[in-house]
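Follow-up to my earlier ticket, as requested here are the two runs.
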Amino acid sequence: MKCAFACGLVLFVSGMRILAQNPSELARSYLETLQAGKYDDVSAFFAADELKEFRATFDFGEALLQEAAQQFYLMLFGEGATKSSVHKLSDTQFLVDFYHLY
């Protein structure tokens, strides 16, 4: 419960920081966060529907044959990734894990 509250508070504060910026500051902040490798913070720059849309761009992986699908998920999410493990990720964690590899 404490963890959920703390996570919610961090997201709320991050969101307030983002809302207070003009587009130029927002873009600069996003790129600095990305370049610093703070991938957990990058997701705060996206609305929930944008995270869902990003994830949907990879939906074709669901239709691949098993062997091809395994290679697809390993390529995108690294060692140990499977169709099942990626399917269980939240939209936010999907983005974070995707960024961690690149």
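Run two:
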Amino acid sequence: MNWIKFSALTLLILVVPLSGISCSGESDEAAKKKLEVILEDDLKAILEGIPDTALIEKPYYNLFSYKQYDKGNYSKKAEADFFFMKSVHVKIVRKYRYHRSKRMWERYYNEYGFISEKADSAGDK
């Protein structure tokens, strides 16, 4: 009888905290780290096949929007601009959302956008 009480107590001590972690989702810091890895990989993929002479000195991305939501399938949303071309005044705009139950980011928007000459020259530092 004592063995059953001990096992039930042990199970309760181990399972309750773990279920709280799985239900509450991943921490915002962990999700941001995952996003940073994806942004770096996306920048590398964008630059593949483009001659170095066509690129600005230091191609970069700007994460300009990051929002969190309490309800729904997606708990976070992020938007980033990728700057990389020297003489063509375009950027790539990408939007990402964080799937709450899968604990992963997905890209759902990928389009070119025009940039002003002032913004382009700022990226050519």
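The only thing I checked on run two: Residues 26-123 form one domain. Let me know what else you need.
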